[in-house]
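Hello,

Our lab assistant flagged a job as stuck in the queue for most of the afternoon. It eventually completed. Since we weren't sure the result was trustworthy after the delay, we are filing this so someone can double-check. Below is the sequence as submitted and the structure that was eventually returned. Let us know if re-running is recommended.
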Amino acid sequence: MTSTVPALGTRTAEGSALQAVLLDMDGTLVDTEGFWWDVEVEVFASLGHRLDESWRHVVVGGPMTRSAGFLIEATGADITLDELTVLLNDGFEDRIGRALPLMPGAGRLLAELYEYEIPTALVSASHRRIIDRVLTSLGAHHFALTVAGDEVPRTKPYPDPYLAAAAGLGADPVRCAVIEDTATGVAAAEAAGCQVVAVPSVAPIAPALRRTIVTSLEEVDLTFLHGLMTEMR
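-- returned structure --
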């Protein structure tokens, strides 16, 4: 995709500048939502429990405490939340060590944001140890700031991670474009007051005010993102 991109800070109307782009990680930039489910299935199988496929939509996109807590309660597994969290993170880290596919359009979008010096943050419900591993593939230089799920008092679906990212970049949340793949992440971004681009991965996301639905990051470039801010007039 090619685009003619306004310089950073260019305004098409008073107050319409794009100040920052805040990106989710799993299922948005890297094709790993399936990895988490596979690891959850394997861990619970080792504990003697079989996960119901319908639970996948319950745990997708949520913080580790919520998804792991739900699975413990649903299965009755004899394991603590802290013990399960370690097993899940270990299993996931092993998976991404073997392969870490990017979502279509992710590499091109990150390169474009970096080229035009758009302040960019990675905002994930995953723990810091996981984010740091993924950054070796995504390129840490693409992000001025990263926010992990275990570094904020409340993670997604609360607005805290996106408010922290906007503040860290010195941006007004209203002038930030957020790209997310789950309803949980969308809820967090919208609660923070951001303009949201939803790229559904595992479960569909309904259209709503201040929310734009696309099928792939290949549809998203800087002209597109600047346009979202212009439409807010």
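-- support follow-up --
The delay was a queue issue, not a problem with the job. The result is valid. The CA atoms of residues 114 and 142 lie 6 Å apart. Residues 1-15 have pLDDT under 50 and may be disordered.
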